[in-house]
Every structure is written in structure tokens, then in C-alpha cells.
Amino acid sequence: MKINHIAIAVHDVEESAKVYKEALGSDSILFETVPSEGVKIAIIPLENCTVELMQPTSKSSPIKKFLEKRGPGLHHIALETPDIDGEVERMKGCGVQFLGSVRPGSAGTRVTFIHPKSLHGVLAELCSTSS
Amino acid sequence: MKINHIAIAVHDVEESAKVYKEALGSDSILFETVPSEGVKIAIIPLENCTVELMQPTSKSSPIKKFLEKRGPGLHHIALETPDIDGEVERMKGCGVQFLGSVRPGSAGTRVTFIHPKSLHGVLAELCSTSS
Questions:
Q1: How many contacts, defined by CB atoms under 8 Å, are there between A and B?
Q2: For B63-86, what is each residue's pLDDT tens digit?
Q3: φ, ψ (nearest 5 deg) of residue B64
Q4: How far is B49 from chain A (nearest CA, A)?
Q5: Could you tell me the pTM of the whole model?
Q6: What is the sign, positive or negative, of the torsion defined by CA atoms of A96, A97, A101, A107?
Q7: A19 touches B at CB < 8 Å
């Protein structure tokens, strides 16, 4: 199990991407819009994982609600595993609760989310290793 | 630049460590008390970084205030660099603001913190690569 990315909620992904790119000394940023999730994302690569800035693109987006309640900041972490189905089974056996079943994510991955109450307040994505 | 650890504020580090150890399938946890920072920490190793659970041990701890305001959850991320002095200089040149100067951290590292207003709401530790 390793960290795949750290996701941060922001009001303006283009403006935040400039700030992060400069601060982190990164030389590349990838932008991606995910209409089904109601977000526009900036992906900033670090050596061992990525930082993802997320801006809501619809009023019903959970990121929109997060920003209204807490303001911009750390939103979730993503844990990567080569065997997502096996991990979900193992975790369920430990009493871990999930938000929805395993479903298609970006770049050919499969994803699900661990309920924050199972990780003492932390929302965690579980994603499969990209093939 | 890479992620060194993800820090999570919790009420009871021993109880949370059990939950995280089981959920993440980790077979080792290291506990550390840092009286100068007013925290007790559980360090859970992942493949490419660590998860650190932090419980306040004094009433004046910033973690105590964080928990009272927001409850348990993601507190900060730590970025590791082999040249912390050079990075601080470079970042200051980009207008990044710091919370205090570079000072001794745990395990022989040197650390400082980037002000959340310089990273759109995210508190980030900057730490030197352990020698």
C-alpha cells in the first residue's frame, strides 16, 4: 500500500496550480475535467506521488460543500494497491466502511472511498495501480 | 521534492494507531513523544512515505486547538528535500511565507513550516532528507 495522491480542495484550480507549481518547483501540471464527479483537477507530480488540486464545477459537488464549510485545504488522501478487490475484502473484514462499491476512476484505474468514520476523520480513496 | 509523511490529528493516538494499523494492513508502528511540540506520535510506514497520527499532550498544543475547532482529521503534509536551506531561499523568492526558521526536527532532520496562506489553506512541513 502506498500513497498515490494528496487531494486539496480549492476555489480556482488554475490560480492555485500556478501557486503550487512555483512553490513546489514543479515543471509540469496536467489539467483534467471530470464531469461525472463535478470537478476540474490540476495534477502536480512530486517524486513519489502527486498533489491534486480540485475545483468544483457544479453546485452539487461534494467539493463545493467542503469549501463552503471549511474553506480550501486538505480534502482526502488516496491509497494505491495492486489488488483493490482483495484489499476491500480484507478491510471489510476489519470493519472498515466504504462509500460505494469499486468503480472506474481516471486513467484506467478502479476506485472506492473509505468512510471518514473508519479512519478517525480522514476521507481516503482506495485506488488500483494503473496498468 | 517528495512527500515524507501525512500528519493526522487524533484524540487518542494509541486507539487510532490500532485502527490505522488494521485498516492499512501495516505490521509495524513506532511511537514517539515530542515534549517540546506537545505531541505523542504514532508513525505508520507505507511503501513510499509514512502516516503520522498526532495526539496533543499539552493544553497549549496547536494540535489541541485544531481538534477543538475541526475534530480529528488531516492536519498537514510534509515535503522532503535534500537541500532545505536552498529550497527555503528559492521559495522565499517566490513569495512563500514560513512559520519560523529552519530548526532541528526528529531523527536528525531539520524542519520548518510553510504558512497555509501560501498554499491555499494547506499547512506544509518542509523537512530535510534524513542523513
A1: 112
A2: 999 999 999 999 999 999 999 999
A3: -60, -45
A4: 7
A5: 0.95
A6: negative
A7: yes
